[in-house]
Design brief:
Elements lengths: L3 E3 L5 E3 L4 H11 L20 H9 L7 H8 L3 H6 L2 H8 L8 E4 L8 E5 L5 E5 L6 E4 H18 L4 H23 L3 H6 L4 H6 L4 H16 L2 H9 E4 L2 E4 L6 E2 L3 H20 L3 H7 L2 E9 L10 E8 L4 E9 L17 H12 L8 E4 L5 E6 L14 H22 L2 H8 L4 H29 L10
Antiparallel strand pairs: 1-2, 3-6, 4-5, 7-8, 9-10, 10-11, 11-12, 12-14, 13-14
Helix pairs in contact: 1-16, 6-7, 6-15, 6-17, 7-15, 7-16, 7-17
């Protein structure tokens, strides 16, 4: 009799004696949830109004930044999708799933992947946004990622056939690499990463390969803190200050200024306590000089995010980015109980669980008003996808890379043998995911149009960015 085992994500499963047995257990799940079931998008008749969900997710955000949020989201259905993770989370809760839970990214779309430097200064390709990370059904991340390729492909005016193939490539790559990870030990999976330079070498487009190789070279040569310091700061006496660039970078005023002045040092010191001792020693050589508010990402606009500037006694800078950590949009849509009451800790621990390597200064903190934050370096040799220059062939290759990275991340907290057994070696699962992705792209466009109507009738505020 196999015993029950509960892992750190509160997920129970049978401990069996071999990978083959776990694989066969995955195969058996198909009888309960057929692979073809994943093409379904049967939304409830009483589905919540997407505009109302957006309004709910704006509660508690900085009021005068909300027009920027909606202005960004109205740019295209793809921009809307990036800011509408809460809408899709509610929809995914209505779709079939196998009951296999693991740590999810939670906002798994194609712009939340890219290259970045590990603490050992190696450039890897991985997921890079975990604001919504939470345990849940593995299918949810995959469906959101695949759908994002259809939506982005339509935005680029690619053919319907191309767009559907992008989604198919995501699921097929996930399948193939999850099978590879199912043959490794847990420790081997933990050590696994995706070398960005090697990944680019696999590409078939010579011109695009050269374009990416130049970006890698530039990223490796980039000494972020020194260059940012020269570009972003000035001295006010002995104190280094960050330049305002409103409405996207600015010093807080009014009540927010009082809060930052009063609690800035407290928040910083609590952050230091979340770091390991050697990182505390390193940052003890730096003093906090300035804090500004910075508008970031589509989904995070209006949350309290910003930059803090630290200076050493000899004048070397470090820029840290802090982001407000709110409840995951997945919470309330899954039955899984969250492990962390501190939302900053939830994000940091989820990121460390899913990423092959995380920022050396990644930590969490809070203020006296129960606002949670997480902190990391502002920039560190990041290489972001440039969709505007991608051709269909490049987009297909990028879809495969994202599917690979997601499989690696899921294999760390999930059971790759169980998932691989379920998916199998046919095209049926990828076919179903690509069908779902097209259906959800249609739904996303309908929701986008509802947002435009709400803006037209003054229900959502907008303002032009400077």
């Amino acid at each position: 009799m196999a015993e029950k085992f509960k892992n750190t994500n509160n997920i129970s499963f049978d401990v069996v004696t071999s990978k083959a047995e776990r694989f066969e257990k995955g195969v058996a799940i198909r009888k309960v949830v057929p692979l073809s079931a994943h093409q379904q998008l049967n939304l409830a008749e009483n589905r919540e109004d997407p505009v109302e969900i957006l309004i709910k997710t704006s509660i508690g955000r900085i009021e005068n930044l909300l027009p920027i949020r909606y202005s960004r989201m109205m740019e295209s259905p793809f921009a809307f999708y990036r800011g509408a993770a809460a809408i899709m989370a509610a929809d995914l809760a209505q779709t079939p799933n196998t009951g296999i839970h693991l740590q999810l990214c939670g906002d798994c779309h194609l712009m939340n992947f890219g290259g970045f430097a590990t603490p050992e200064r190696q450039l890897v390709f991985d997921i890079n946004d975990f604001d919504e990370t939470f345990p849940g059904p593995w299918e949810w991340d995959l469906k959101r990622l695949a759908a994002s390729f259809v939506i982005a492909g339509r935005w680029r005016k690619f053919s319907n056939k191309n767009c559907k193939e992008f989604a198919w490539n995501v699921a097929d790559s996930y399948k193939r690499h999850m099978l590879d990870y199912s043959k490794l030990s847990a420790l081997q999976i933990w050590y696994a990463d995706i070398d960005l330079a090697e990944l680019i070498e696999l590409g078939g487009d010579k011109d695009f390969k050269e374009f990416d190789q130049k970006r890698i070279k530039k990223a490796l040569e980039y000494t972020a803190h020194e260059k940012e310091f020269a570009k972003m700061t000035y001295f006010d006496g002995a104190r280094a200050r960050i330049k305002d660039d409103p409405p996207l970078i600015f010093h807080p005023t009014g009540d927010l200024e009082k809060q930052v002045v009063k609690e800035g040092e407290i928040i910083h010191n609590r952050y230091l306590e979340s770091l390991s001792e050697e990182k505390q020693v390193l940052l003890s050589r730096y003093k906090l000089h300035d804090i500004v508010i910075k508008v970031v990402g589509v989904g995070s606009v209006g949350t309290l995010c910003g930059i803090s500037l630290l200076m050493s006694a000899t004048g070397e800078p470090i820029f840290l980015q802090f982001k407000e950590a709110r409840k995951s949009v997945l919470e309330g849509n899954v039955k899984t109980q969250g492990k962390y009451s501190h939302q900053g800790e939830r994000i940091v621990m989820g990121q460390k669980l899913m990423q092959s390597a995380s920022d050396m200064f990644l930590g969490w903190t809070d203020d006296s008003k129960n606002k949670f934050f997480y902190i990391r370096q502002l920039r560190d040799a990041k290489v972001k996808p440039v969709l505007e220059v991608m051709k269909p062939k490049n987009m297909a290759e990028y879809a495969k890379a994202c599917g690979w990275a997601l499989a690696r991340a899921h294999a760390r907290s999930g059971d790759p043998s169980l998932i691989s057994g379920y998916i199998g070696d046919t095209n049926e699962f990828a076919n179903a995911i690509s069908e779902f992705s097209v259906l959800y792209a249609d739904q996303n466009e309908s929701d986008y149009n509802k947002m435009l109507e709400a803006i037209k009738h003054g229900k959502l505020p907008i303002a032009a960015e400077i």
